[in-house]
Amino acid sequence: MTVAPTIRVQSADFDLQAEIEALTAGRRDIGAVVTFAGLCRDEQGQLSALELEHYPGMAEAEMRRIAELAIERFSLLGLTAVHRYGKILPGENIVLVVAAAPHRQAAFDGAGFMMDFLKTSAPFWKKEHAADGSQGDWVAAKDADDRARDKWR
């Protein structure tokens, strides 16, 4: 049975519990569900918002490609990935990954793999908006994100 991932890029917030329920409803083969929710932080009061942009169509396609790799590699029974765009305020959701598998390690690995590749491969960009009203530059990619991705190779 081929598992099709659920992939969405949206400006609206998401409901973590509703996403878990949608993935697991009526299922008796799932033994583990791992979730990762990335939130906007205020950087000790210095940040008023993050502005997230994406390349429409290409972002979804890359997320789907990564999700399909995760499903195959870790024998996942389901995978949901939701990424928001627009202006995100501190405390608000940015990204969600829900990985379902027969056993916990596969679910943990699938969620980690998805996030590590999502951070480095999907065409999303973020700009910081400072609490003093100024706009920062677009945030550069981090070497640590590349190292996290490369551990899966």
Walkthrough of the structure:
The structure is a single chain. By secondary structure, the protein is of the alpha+beta class. Helix content is 34%, strand content 33%. It contains four helices and eight strands. It has helices at residues 16-24, 58-74, 104-121, 143-150, and strands spanning 6-10, 32-39, 47-54, 78-84, 86-88, 93-101, 124-130, 135-138. The strands form two sheets. The protein has a four-stranded mixed β-sheet with strand order 1-4-6-2, sandwiched between helices. Strand 7 (124-130) and strand 8 form a beta hairpin. Helix 2 packs antiparallel against helix 3 and helix 3 (104-121) packs across helix 4. The protein is globular. The two termini are 26 Å apart. The mean pLDDT is 95.
- Main sheet summary: 4 strands, mixed
Provide the gyration radius in Å.
16 Å
Ends: how far apart?
26 Å
Low-confidence stretches: none
User: DSSP strand (E) fraction?
Assistant: 25-35%
Q: Report the structural category.
A: alpha+beta
Helical content (DSSP H or I, runs of 4+): 25-40%
What spatial order of strands do you see in the largest sheet?
1-4-6-2
Shape: globular
Number of beta-strand segments: 8
Average of per-residue pLDDT values: 95
From N to C, what is the helix and strand string? EHEEHEEEHEEH
**Number of continuous helical runs:** 4
